[in-house]
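Recall from the previous lesson that a structure prediction takes nothing but the amino acid sequence as input. Here we apply that procedure to Citrate transporter-like domain-containing protein from Alkalihalophilus pseudofirmus. The sequence below is the only information supplied.
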Amino acid sequence: MNHFLKQHLYVVYSVILLMYIANTFIGSEPIHYVIGILAIPMLLISFLGASKLFRILGSIFITVGTGMYIYSGLPLYQVPLYFTSTMPLLAFLTVLPWMNSIVRAGRFDRRINELMKANVSDLGKLYVRSSFTTYTLCSFINLSALSISQEVLLENMAKMKKKIKDSFISQTTLRAFAVALCWSPMEIMVAMTVDATGVSYLAYLPWLILCSFIVLMVDWLWGSRRFKSVPYEAAVYHPERTIEPGIIAWKITKLVIALTAFLLIVVTLGNAYNLNFILSVTLVILPFSFCWALVMNRMRSFLAIGWGTWKFRTNHMQNFVVLFLSLAFFSSSLNETPFLGMIQQPFLAASETPLVILLLIQGTYLLMSMIGVHPVATIGILAEVMQPLYSVINPMSVGMVLITGALATATVGAYGITVTMTSMNTMQNPYRITLRNMPFAILYGGVGTLIGYLLL
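The prediction returns the following tokens.
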């Protein structure tokens, strides 16, 4: 890819996505068609910079989608219109770095990470503490928190044996990450599920928090027992280091207040203008982040961190652009064929036994994650497959399983970004990480399925 173009992809992506958002309110069919035409070179340019896994996934979706498009006998001029359905997801991902940046500008991450640097006597206590820290940060800054937590632990555990260190880090950070995001409005799996099932985010929220709490408590109990016998020896001894619980508690309280305000604005805007959840969150993130920076008097720091972070993240969105645009073409073409009905048959056949359907969803996620299919792609297909069943099964039950099943794969997907990042940071085999976390993934999915079943 041309170096100049690679450095300015953020301009290309932003112009097209801004056009899409503006046209959501304008409702112009010619503009919508132009956006569809622009999506094709957008996909081709991104394909050049995407990783091998996403190129393969994108190629499969485009190839199969093309076959179904031709089979359906659709006219050639309509092709651009079949690439636009996932544009809201790309717009959502484009503005997400600004929310991460305001948390960093307010130095919330530094204060909360002090919890992991304070002295503890054994790894059992450190497990709970590092899990809580990762959980708190992931709720607000998503993937960035995983990297930060792992860096701190690698530094603090430098003197520990590699086998223990690898096991500890790959379990405590990935598991906390997975359970923290199941109720976060900034998590794309949650946003996709809310829009796919048509159930309000606020209706999901208490059940998602309950699921998150149950799984987290079980993991803390297991982790503290598993590592209690291993004494902790910090790489650098700090005899005077103490935690300031009042300051850290106040930082967490301010984050909770900010998130509550954010949710209220998102829900109010969505209800007032009849917008879907993904678009509502996308529209609120940027102005909310700026207002928050003003209130904290951190505007200069926010702009410095935010602009650099946003440019970097947007310039490296090729994987998601390839995945979402090819998925849009595949899903739209699939809807025009009788093949969707064939895929739906096993689920429709089990409509008399809803528990089997919920277990099928969980099993599909795990199977797809093992062969490298991103959970976003899986949820995109499952959302289409499950539509006819909402008349006989509570869509909230399906939604609970769609969310928890997708996020459980964050701990075991050997080709997923979270496991790959952990593998690179700790220099261990990704399949070893998968093996260690598989019982947790089954537990997480099982609790989500149980709650979903009880909601039937």
